[in-house]
Design a protein that fits this description.
The protein has about 280 residues and is of the alpha/beta class. Helices cover about 45% and strands about 15% of the residues. The protein has helices spanning about 20-30, 45-50, 55-65, 70-75, 90-100, 130-140, 165-175, 190-195, 205-230, 255-265, 270-284, and strands spanning about 5-10, 35-40, 85, 110-120, 125, 145, 150, 155-160, 175-180, 235-240. Strands 1, 2, 4, 5, 7, 8, 9 and 10 form an eight-stranded mixed sheet that branches. It is globular.
């Protein structure tokens, strides 16, 4: 007797580091391993949503490569300094709508769960329905960098504050086995101050503020990550070897390298993943 076992993929936040998620999906796709549930936080949520919407990994990689040109990134930056964040995020929302459209999460080809945090209550928010673009705008709203997004009396920011690697969300959605990808491993080895020192287009005071926020968030993410993994261990955990200087704000021009690393770190576990899926089917 066989059962229809479900594979969940949990993708962590991490800014430019998250482009490695594309490589993981490419490796699974090449080996005809179907992903049944996608859960993501911040950049992991963006990659997950793109794939769930029907984009091929080649499509997603092409978009990522386009950001090798810093002018493409600057197009997403709202001019001026609003009160709750350095950037308003309106251009980012427009970007998500351009590629995803006005579709709702429940209309996507693969079930998707995104993570945000309501700063009014301090609660972790799991988003399983509603407009995809707005949900993405919420999950990427790094405090201090982007304005929070208001939704149903909630004020939502980046889910990485409380759950940067949403393994539990993938299980909650119905996955029998979860493959988790953490792109933040090693990210705290280089400080944002060092990274931003190479960014002359940021004014000094803003650069200093972003650096403090980034270093503080990295510490917080690292601590909650350890606790979450103990509570909700995945069947497989991948930690791509990403240079520490690549961060939330730096390294988008290295998309090709990041995608290749995502593929490379996935290849060794593919046979074991297939075996576990097969073994569980036999047991079902």
């Amino acid at each position: 007797m066989t059962g229809n076992l479900k594979l969940g993929l949990a993708l962590s936040g991490g800014g430019a580091r998250g482009l490695a998620h594309i490589g993981v999906l490419k490796a699974l796709e090449a080996n005809q391993i179907q992903v049944d549930y996608l859960a993501g936080t911040s950049m992991g949520g963006v990659i997950a949503a793109a794939y769930a919407s029907g984009m091929t990994t080649s499509d997603i990689e092409d978009i990522a490569r386009s950001f090798s040109n810093s002018r493409h990134i600057l197009k997403l930056v709202d001019p001026g300094i609003p009160g709750a964040g350095i950037f308003r995020g309106n251009q980012l929302l427009k970007f998500f709508k351009e590629y995803i459209g006005d579709r709702c999460i429940e209309e996507l080809g693969i079930p998707l769960g995104l993570v945000a945090v309501d700063i009014k209550t301090g609660n972790e928010i799991h988003i399983f329905n509603g407009p995809v673009a707005e949900a993405l705008r919420a999950t990427v709203s790094v405090p201090g960098l982007l304005d929070p997004i208001d939704h149903d009396e909630q004020r939502l920011v980046d889910g990485g504050l409380l759950n940067n690697l949403p393994v539990d969300v993938a299980y909650q959605m119905g996955a029998d086995l979860v493959l988790a990808v953490d792109v933040m491993s090693g990210a705290t080895d280089t400080s944002y101050s060092q990274i931003l020192g190479e960014k002359p287009y940021l004014p000094g005071k803003i650069k200093e503020m972003v650096a403090v926020l980034g270093d503080s968030l990295n510490i917080l993410i690292k601590e909650q990550y350890r606790t979450r993994l103990q509570q909700f261990p995945p069947a497989f955990l991948l930690e791509p070897k990403i240079p520490p200087e690549i961060s939330v704000v730096s390294g988008y021009h290295r998309a090709e390298e990041l995608v290749a690393e995502g593929q490379a770190v996935t290849e060794p576990i593919l046979d074991s993943l297939k075996e576990q899926l097969a073994d569980r089917k036999m047991e079902a």
